[in-house]
Amino acid sequence: MIYFDNSATSPVDPEVLDAMLPYLKEEYGNPSSKYYCKAVNAHNAVAEARERVSKLLGASSEEIIFTSGATESTNFIIKGYLDYRKYYRDGHNHVITSVAEHKATLNTCKYLNGELYSNNDPTISLFGEKKRVDRGYEATFVGVSETGEIMPESITAAIKPNTALVSLIYVNNEIGTISDVKSIARICHQYDISIHSDLTQAVGKMPVNVYDMQLDYASCSAHKIYGPKGIGAAFVKADAYGLAPITALMHGGEQEFGVRAGTLAVHNIVGFGKAAEIALRDAKQNEENLLKLDRILVERIESIPCLRLTNPTDSRMPGIVSVIVEKKDFNNERFVKKISDRLALSTGSACSAGEPSYVIKALGLEDKTSKVLRITINKYTTMEAVKVLIDILKNNL
Q1: How far is residue 81's CA from residue 275's CA, in Å, rounded to a whole number?
Q2: In terms of Cα–Cα distance, which of 167, 173, 175, 171 is closest to 147?
Q3: Which residue, 260, 281, 302, sits at the end of a domain?
Q4: Which of 29, 82, 213, 305 is within CB 3.0–4.6 Å of 39 for a Cys-Cys bond?
């Protein structure tokens, strides 16, 4: 089986695994303990990993908060910052996001907005009636362009006197569209609004610098850059006085600068740090290979008459290729299942498995949600693998 679902997750780099193993065996100390060697070794390993992750993001080490992944980071930042603004600063309680975000952002903002998105929500009655709940926050969901780009003017139009935060994805996880987050950040700061960006699909694939992008907050995950699952980071901008004010995600001990209590998963943190180091070390080579393979893949896809790209423009991350199959009887779920012994493909985000893609709907392609395939490549993908993929597509469509 050849793997083309790298936007869902990537394989663990052997160097990452080797770096992690000692912290699952002999180096099992708690980094919050003191004085004895295993505790000191664990503490130093976490500090080194924090430094490596900060370099990958273009940040300072004290601005990196380790979390369980980008979903947790995003929840922490949106909820924590809005809580701070509403209750401790100026009463501002409004967040702006887009309709094409990852669900970590979309559903967090829906929750704050009093909307319901889960049948497990306790505010749904026994008879299935949905109730809107006033949680004391507002959210605005702006549209996107026909290629999925979040336009700066739509953010400007959505700003209210009580807007506190804008939260936007940098590279769309389903269609690869790159939005001009830097221009939006400039607009935000003109209005004393903070900005958070989900950088998960960009980190390790293209140069990322949170300072250059003028971000206040950011999220990312290790398992999208050949690291382990269950570990990610939140970037929280610091000033001369320390981290920007934000309400703690979990209360307890003083781990992670007092904003995320709990014993640190040292082995995963070390793995994240190693993955970040490798991503920086091999950045040029990996970007060149990714771009080369992407060009060949797109050329061959475009040679198949029934296939077209959802985003055919240059504002797309190389390696994330979303295609529409223009055949009346085609169903993407059935197709992915049919070829699953040979290829790993997806119909969209792993967090929306089994549901029609709301991202594709946001492009104005509601009638195409059952006809989209997402093909994503990694640094281990070969030309031979691309050839096999194209052959399977040609012979089965």
Answers
A1: 29
A2: 175
A3: 281
A4: 29
Residue identified by tokens 């980008």 is 70
Pairing type for strands 94-98 and 163-169 reads: parallel
Residue written as token pair 């960006």 = 197
Q: Rounded CA gap, 395 and 384, in Å? A: 17
Q: With 70 as the cut, is the pLDDT of residue 49 above it?
A: yes
| Residue carrying the six token digits 């570990």 | 231
* CA dist., res. 278 & res. 298, Å (int): 27
Instruction: Considering only the C-alpha atoms of the chain, give the largest distance between any 2 of them, rounded to a whole number of Å.
Output: 68
Task: Express each pLDDT in 247-280 by its tens digit.
Answer: 999 999 999 999 999 999 999 999 999 999 999 9
Q: How many angstroms separate the first and last alpha carbons of the chain?
A: 19
Residue among 109, 188, 220, 351 flagged as catalytic? 351
- Tell me if residue 351 is catalytic: yes
* Token pair for 374: 């997402």
Q: Mapping DSSP to helix (H, G, I), strand (E, B) and coil, where does residue 18 land?
A: helix
- CATH number at 163 reads 3.40.640.10
Q: Do both 297 and 328 map to the same domain?
A: yes
Domain C-terminal end among 250, 281, 312: 281
Tokens 């093909």, residue? 375
Nearest in space to 202 (alpha carbons), one of 4, 2, 7 = 7
Beta-carbon contacts of 158 under 8 Å, excluding residues fewer than 6 positions away, are 96, 140, 142
Show Cβ contacts of residue 224 under 8 Å, excluding neighbours closer than 6 positions. 6, 7, 9, 10, 200, 201, 203, 204
SS3 sequence of 266-334 = HHHHHHHHHHHHHHHHCHHHHHHHHHHHHHHHHHHHHCCCCEEECCCCCCECCCEEEEEECCCCCCHHH
Query: If DSSP codes are grouped into helix, strand and coil, which group holds residue 42?
Result: helix
Q: Which domain holds residue 130?
A: 14-281
Range with the poorest average pLDDT among 74-88, 145-159, 357-371: 357-371
DSSP conformation class of 206? B
Residues linked to residue 367 through DSSP beta bridges, in sequence order: none
The overall pTM is greater than 0.70? yes
